[in-house]
Structure prediction request, 227 residues.
Amino acid sequence: ETGVTQTPRHLVMGMTNKKSLKCEQHLGHNAMYWYKQSAKKPLELMFVYNFKEQTENNSVPSRFSPECPNSSHLFLHLHTLQPEDSALYLCASSQGDGGDTEAFFGQGTRLTVV
Amino acid sequence: DAKTTQPPSMDCAEGRAANLPCNHSTISGNEYVYWYRQIHSQGPQYIIHGLKNNETNEMASLIITEDRKSSTLILPHATLRDTAVYYCIVRIKDGGATNKLIFGTGTLLAVQP
Prediction:
């Protein structure tokens, strides 16, 4: 248990569906991240939020829409996804003050797009 | 952030020390070496980090060469639960407001009974 909780753990959705992934941390961290891990590929950083403000978007398609209502919660809204978007989506958090030593990861949401 | 090179896979016998190498020949003076691991289908887990000196904690030891161009992560007594992908990451610790981590392909350590 890392203190970062992701729900749901597994999700199957059709290409026309809209769904959301949720990430929650009560570690007092101010920075939160979304990563994508496709089969046999390294983790890819998608979005970075610091103090609720998005500070990085790594050319992620607009069918992925993040939301950070407060420092404890991070969402990833999904719509009109493609089968190649099937992957493990990981959320992480860290202190966010630039001097922290480690990031804490959730267990991930295994997404399958059919 | 500097690039790292790791072997794709390694085996280790249970109970023996696992020594995982990492090359980071372009590391700059203010970049730290971090190690994370990812057990199958779970989120990555922080292990240890260092700048110049060797470091040890309850999980592992980190040996950094004097020229800082390479390092070795040592798991002193590997168990089956240490089977995972181990990532060596080089980053500036105070390079920004966030702990943004860029992952490579890592080393798959298989601990054999």
Notes: The mean pLDDT of chain B is 91. The two ends of chain B are 37 Å apart (CA to CA). DSSP finds no helices and nine strands in chain B. The first strand of chain B starts at residue 9 and ends at 13.
